[in-house]
Amino acid sequence: MSSHTAPFQHIVVAAHPDIPTAFEEAEKISLFLRAQGRSACHDYLYDENLQAQVAAGDVDLLIALGGDGTMLRAGRLCAPYGVPILGINMGKFGFLMEIKHPEWQNTLSKVLADASWLEKRMLLRAEQWRNGKNIRQWQALNEIVVSRGETVRPVHLDTSVDERFLTTYVADGLIAATSTGSTAYALAAGGPILPPELRNILLVPVAPHLSIDRAIVLAEGSTVAITVHTDHQAVISIDGQSPVPLQDGDSIHARASEYSVQFVRIQDPGYFYRNLTPHMYNNPAIKKTP
Q1: What end-to-end distance do the CA atoms of the chain give, in Å?
Q2: What is the C-alpha to C-alpha distance for residues 210 and 216, in angstroms, rounded to an integer?
Q3: Which of 203, 196, 184, 202 is nearest to 273 (CA)?
């Protein structure tokens, strides 16, 4: 938990392009902010001009309208520049969001009155190595998934932690998740839920065959290396984005990023577990015990 030193003055409102009413709502919020004496503009989250403003240091708050995927995208955009993010839920789940859409005006007024705090969450830095060369890098807020492609056959994943061999997973895939990602794909694959302030890496295999089938929580500061061995398609996916093909022998190195995502919160710091159960019961696959 941390607090910011001055009220937010230069604000951009970013709408998800696939939510029909998001841009209209972004315009309303931008007008509201300007009426409160703030510098504000609005655009789609993917817009190059909006991204350029963030990169130039012209923004001290980004308000994201959408769902959890919007927050993931906003997090990867804003973290390198230290720009905090406030989420207004216009999606389905909204576990990462702070404001319910109908309540945005009242809650946003509290933020403008400097009644909020900043929650820092770890990113993962992933690197793709081939023949001794680092050929690609990513930042992940939820998870890195190394897995099979369309062919329904497992891949062999030699996995090391801090340059010490751990095991070879024979599985559909392996998830390396942050604490934020522990409530996403890693949870669906049977992993534990970690509190968001932890800076650990969670390893969760997906459909392991004659391999370790338990999740492993790595110590803070650990580095994991996953080397792919396969004679068919294998891929890596970052935060659920489009998969990138991997070759036999490629290695993925993952460690805590030098950047952190900052979420603006109004709720008290104990909100996480208090909100966890209602979110899980909103999932129709989970039935509440009478």
Answers
A1: 36
A2: 16
A3: 196
Categorize the per-residue pLDDT at 280 as very low, low, confident or very high, splitting at 50, 70 and 90: low
Measure the CA–CA gap between 158 and 167, rounded to whole angstroms. Answer: 6
pTM (predicted TM-score): 0.90
pLDDT in tens, 246-276: 999 999 999 999 999 999 999 887 788 777 7
| Catalytic site includes residue 248 | no
For residues 97 and 283, is the Cβ–Cβ distance under 8 A?
A: no
Which of 43, 68, 172, 239 is flagged as catalytic? 68
Task: Give which of 161, 198, 200 is closest to 272, Cα–Cα.
Answer: 198
Q: What average pLDDT does this structure show over 199-213? A: 95
| Structural domains of the chain ordered from first start | 10-116+266-281 (3.40.50.10330), 123-258 (2.60.200.30)
Helical H segments across 8-89, by residue range: 22-35, 48-55, 68-78
Among the listed residues 282, 267, 286, 261, the one whose alpha carbon sits nearest the alpha carbon of residue 62: 261
3-class state of residue 183 by DSSP? helix
Q: Can you give the three-state secondary structure of 93-131, one letter per residue? A: CCCCCCEEHHHHHHHHHHHHCCCCEEEEEEEEEEEEEEC
